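Propose amino acids for all 400 sites.
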């Protein structure tokens, strides 16, 4: 007998609620609880269950339910949230997904789409789903040391975990002088060399029990080897296999590399969905950045794959952003402001900049960068979904 998951349906429309109850009644794995109207009662009920489903209609007022979605996503990670709306704009969907919903359906809900959605939810709740291919690998790179790429990787990964409520991996591929554990004040029991030695054993449980969780967040850190000898004889194939295995467990993987083009760095770059090329605004750094862009072009990387991040940016710099973009022949994707005291305080205490001062310009910049990255993912998914829907419609018309 299959496991039954308690389900709460929230909708201001009686018609919508009855329709969803009827659809759900055809699936033996989900059981609707009695109608709950008080939001605190909904929260208390779902947060007390080991696994559950919340279907929530945000058609009339998203902000009425925003806090409930966020609170449940945080308190009950095994409660899967499906949002529906009769106005499925891209901005609304992004807001809902960012709040903590895992799925979104347009209303009136089509039965076949609802069934597919519920099947996906069931697979997630029972851990039967194979890799969804939705994982996104982001590599933070610069061939010049000391310009802050480790700080960017660490703070970006943590903000992604906080914003998306999904599992995020932070991988230190700087096997000689990795700093992530120092930046986050971690003393992990295992490191990347241990995982590479046990590639044949790797599954989701093994990974989550091996990587180091950062405090009470959904950020997991895979540390560099503490001894140089442990990094010897690691092949590109091992790194590639490890990254593929991590994609089966994590929605986002942020990789911090060293500043050389060795085999493991190139493997990470090759496997990346997005490369953040970090520079600062001075002529030597910009010339280096220009050379890297030329090299990436020779490696066949799509121009959209690589995005420029300016670190330690100051509005009154002698070299303006327009000058940078002209030299690099590429738009600057992000500017992280120079805030020496906040950043150094965070590094010295082994915490994120948001834990030092969440309202500082640098903390807000990291948060907005993470939001931009997650929004980019959501938008691409939506564009693909709606373009496929339009293709289906055209095909039906052509078939008569």
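Proposal:
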């Amino acid at each position: 007998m299959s496991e039954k998951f308690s389900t709460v349906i929230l909708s201001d429309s009686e018609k919508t609620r009855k329709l969803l109850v009827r659809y759900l009644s055809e699936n033996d794995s989900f059981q609707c609880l009695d109608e709950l109207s008080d939001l605190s009662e909904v929260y208390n009920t779902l947060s007390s269950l080991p696994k559950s489903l919340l279907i929530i209609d945000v058609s009339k007022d998203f902000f009425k339910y925003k806090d409930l979605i966020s609170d449940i996503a945080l308190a009950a990670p095994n409660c899967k949230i499906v949002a529906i709306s009769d106005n499925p704009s891209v901005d609304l969907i992004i807001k809902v997904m960012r709040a903590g919903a895992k799925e979104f359906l347009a209303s009136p809900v089509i039965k076949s789409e609802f069934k597919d959605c519920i099947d996906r939810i069931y697979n997630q709740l029972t851990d039967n789903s194979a890799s969804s291919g939705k994982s996104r690998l982001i590599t933070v790179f610069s061939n010049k040391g000391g310009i802050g790429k480790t700080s960017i990787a660490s703070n970006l990964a943590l903000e992604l975990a906080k914003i998306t409520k999904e599992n995020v991996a932070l991988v230190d591929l700087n096997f000689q002088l990795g700093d992530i554990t120092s930046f986050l004040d971690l003393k992990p029991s295992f490191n990347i060399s241990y995982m590479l030695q046990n590639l044949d054993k790797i599954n989701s449980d093994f990974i989550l029990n091996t990587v180091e969780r950062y405090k009470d967040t959904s950020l997991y850190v895979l540390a560099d080897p503490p001894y140089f000898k442990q990094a010897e004889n690691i092949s590109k194939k091992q790194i590639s296999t490890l990254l593929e295995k991590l994609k089966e467990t994590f929605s986002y993987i942020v990789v911090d590399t060293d500043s050389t083009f060795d085999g493991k760095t190139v493997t990470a770059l090759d496997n990346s969905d997005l490369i953040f090329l970090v520079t600062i605004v001075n002529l030597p750094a910009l010339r280096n950045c220009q050379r890297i862009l030329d090299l990436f072009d020779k490696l066949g990387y799509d121009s959209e794959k690589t995005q420029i991040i300016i670190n330690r940016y100051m509005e009154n710099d002698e070299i303006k952003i327009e000058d940078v973009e002209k030299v690099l022949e590429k738009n600057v994707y992000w500017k992280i402001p120079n805030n020496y005291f906040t950043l150094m305080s965070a590094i010295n205490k082994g915490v994120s900049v948001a834990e030092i001062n969440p309202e500082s310009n640098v903390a807000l910049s990291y948060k907005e960068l993470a939001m931009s990255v997650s929004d980019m993912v959501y938008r691409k998914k939506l564009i693909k979904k709606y373009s496929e829907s339009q293709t289906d419609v055209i095909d039906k018309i052509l078939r008569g």
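The CA atoms of residues 121 and 272 lie 27 Å apart. The radius of gyration is 23 Å.
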